[in-house]
Amino acid sequence: MILKLILFCIAMLVMPFMVGMLYMEKEQFEEPIVLRYLQGIVTIWGIFQIVAIPLIFMRERLTLLTGIIGGIVCALCLLSLILNFKRIPYIIMTLFRQIKSMPWQMWVAVLLVLLQTVLLVRYCHIDDDDAFYVASSVTAVKTDTIFSINPYTGAVYNVLPARYVLAPFPAFIAVISQVSGIHSTIIAHTLLPAILIPLSYIVFGLVGNRILKRDKRMIGYFLILVSVIQLFSGYSVYTPGVFLLTRIWQGKAVLTNILLPAVFCLGLVAYEKRLKRNWIVLLLLMLASCMVSSMGVFLAAMTLGIFALINGIANKSFKIVFYSFLCCIPNLIYAGIYLFIK
Amino acid sequence: MEKIMEAVVTTYEKYVGSSWHMVLLAVAAVFILFFAKEKKYKIIFSGYVILFGIIYLCPFTAWIIIKTFIGRTVYWRMFWSLPSALIIAYGCSCLLGRIPAGWVKALTAIACVVCISVTGKIVVNMDIYDSNTNRFKLPAAVPGICELIKSDAQQQGLEVVKVVACNSLVSYIRQYDASILMPYGRNALRQEGLSTNEAELFELFNQEETNYERLNILMTEEECNYFIVSDTAGIKDKYLAKGYQPVGEIEVYTIFRTVQ
Q1: CA of A320 vs chain B CAs: smallest distance (Å)
Q2: ipTM metric
Q3: Which member of A139, A183, A207 has the closest CB to residue B136?
Q4: A212, A269, A315: best mutation site toward chain B, by most B Cβ within 10 Å?
Q5: What percent of chain A has pLDDT over 90?
Q6: Are residues B208 and B147 in the same domain?
Q7: CA distance to partner chain A, nearest, from residue B213 (Å)
Q8: What is the pLDDT of residues A267-316, one digit of tens each?
Q9: Which residue among A54, A242, B188, B220 is the one 20 to 30 A from A77 at the CA level?
């Protein structure tokens, strides 16, 4: 089991971080290291969407998907290692320096996030929607297929389910399961919350880092407040906080708690530092949003659309609106495919 | 248009419930407008809330979104695009940023926390969570039932295992082991995508006094080898009386082999 856990950690922690390092500019260390992790995981999810959709329609095997994704991600990691090899000791030192300089407000925020993570890792929330989402992953691994089999019954689909095939997040869990050898249900219910809940707060922290001018005390207060808002959002079952603290392993929860807030984080990065690579991450973010939930096709595009329009006005820049529109082209394509196969 | 406006209002009520977090959001947007240090962020975040509000409330945009993208029943998902946690926290941070460091600042932060807590409702309560009884975090009986069926199927030389499960287990069997087939799953509870046979099987299997002969025919036609009943209201005894062979019992569940 330890070897399996190590493989899981490599796939879900080390590799996204290494891929994210590809976006690092020369001698640019002022950005928090965790931004690289977010950029890395968004890149992997975006690439996953590009690779998985054709394979689903061709009714290919899960092993092939795992092989292709594994190959691409390994190649990117290798490239990152070559490009950043000399910087790694400095990056590790920077990480420790950033942790060491954290004020008490940040430590309180970290403690709150840890408590929420432990809660979902230790206790269970039995959610009926898992009958589709988690069973899809388990079915994919067991039968070496991707969305070809009805997860409710195990019968072969005559017609692919239009609502789900364009959002293959369960297939991503299946790939991680195949790579690590851990049962998909354990990955979804126990291991993913341990990564995705902190990631959600990392995204908020990164937005806070930008809008609060890197003032760590204020970012600490900001994160404490975000944490309390999420904890006290049980006034209806539809809020992001409820999805975060009960079923973060489902694609729609990832959309609302990680990828939609990431539009603000990665949007600001792209708008403030208008580098080509930052626009590419924004494009991949739109792809990743489509990957996790069919709702992401519209909601991510709408969020980026509103945000870009307001930023365009605030910065008096049409380029922001135009480039953001270009980033939404995948959403338009997937919406078109959905309407075609529906 | 009236129907669209009704959907807009009911969706808002459904999403917000009895909480005052939307009021906090509006107050936070005002705070950002007055207290944010950078003009750009004043425009961006207050402007976002206003533009989102217009898109959400405007009958024309709501109609397009409901008809084309989201659907009336889940129009509340529009609120996922409104980063209320981010804006409320930023609004409070803007206020805190105007207060010099020290105990007044810490007290104001505590006041903000209290305000958020009393206007919302805590997610974390034991109605939602359960102490997990297995590493899969599935209902406690599920792994045992699946293992029992698989081991019996192996002894019987069955290559394909197809199980009719009672409603309390129907969502979880295939999360544990996807090699076990089922004539219907959670889709039956939602009345989705069932063939005539499957629908009839689901109906008969859930009747207290059922037509056992017809049930047996349907299970044979659907090639089901096992069925699981929850022993409420003495259902188990009724199947025993009809000559079905029990394979085993786990918790309140009895697993039977079908007669073929």
Answers
A1: 13
A2: 0.93
A3: A183
A4: A212
A5: 80
A6: yes
A7: 24
A8: 999 998 778 899 999 999 999 999 999 999 999 999 999 999 999 999 88
A9: A54
